Amino acid sequence: MSAYTLTAFFLNWDDWGTWNTTTLKYSGASQDYDLYMWYWTGTAWSFVDDSLNTQNGTQWPVEAIGYWFANWSTYWGVAIRNYKTTRNCVLELFTYGNSSANPCEFNVPDGSLTIPADSPYAITVGATDAVTDAYEKYSSRGPTHDGRIKPDFAAPSHVRCPARPTAPRAFPGRRPRPPHMAAVWPLSSARRLSPSTR
């Protein structure tokens, strides 16, 4: 990573437990993993931080480390430890700071949607370039680990902004999507009504 680039790691796995319809919560994870972060000194890996949350049946299956940076260009490493498990789990590791300028060695955009966006009860909006309609590199992608198509919608990024008329395509990132979704959502909701309820 380049100097002063914030870096973080987020791990979750498929062990949420059972859904309680009364409390509207999952029972929690019983499979316990730990997460470790390292950086390259130029000659060896040096320990930076860890996430050692307990998962014994009531906690979420989540470990997270961040936000670290170095004042020099370096490599960051991550290790996952199987602390105490009784079955294999699908592990999902997400990185922050990963970009085309600072690529991850094993970057896999497919399935990069994290919680809560992967929930069947969440509406997820991806980002596309307003001119080319290409999916933005920073935008998370599906499918979910259980095969559902996500995101549910895609909205343009890098759009023109009346507040900055001399800077075309000056409105990037997450900010232009809510106004577009505000227009699309009522139309989408109306499609689900039966003719007798309109």
Keywords:
10 strands, 30% strand, 198 residues, 2 domains, 3-stranded antiparallel sheet, mainly beta
Compile the SSE list and pairings:
Elements: E1 7-13, E2 19-20, E3 25-26, E4 32-40, E5 45-51, E6 62-68, E7 76-84, E8 91-96, E9 125-129, E10 153-157, H1 177-191
Parallel strand pairs: 9-10
Antiparallel strand pairs: 1-6, 1-8, 2-3, 4-5, 4-7
Your description of this structure?
With 198 residues, this protein is mainly beta. The chain has 2 domains: 1-107; 112-198, no CATH class. 8% of the residues lie in helices and 30% in strands. It is built from 1 helix and 10 strands; from the N terminus they run E-E-E-E-E-E-E-E-E-E-H. It has one helix at 177-191, and strands at 7-13, 19-20, 25-26, 32-40, 45-51, 62-68, 76-84, 91-96, 125-129, 153-157. The strands form 4 sheets. The protein has a 3-stranded antiparallel β-sheet with strand order 6-1-8, with no helix packed on it. Strands 5-4-7 form a 3-stranded antiparallel β-sheet, with no helix packed on it. It is flat. The model has no long low-confidence stretch (mean pLDDT 84).
Total beta strand runs: 10
Number of helices: 1
Task: Look at the structure and give the mean pLDDT.
Answer: 84
Count of the separate structural domains:
2
Overall form: flat
Order of helices and strands: EEEEEEEEEEH
Helix content: under 10%
Instruction: Report the β-strand fraction as a percent range.
Output: 25-35%
Structural class: mainly beta
**Main sheet attributes: strand count, strand direction, barrel closure:** 3 strands, antiparallel
Unreliable sequence segments: none
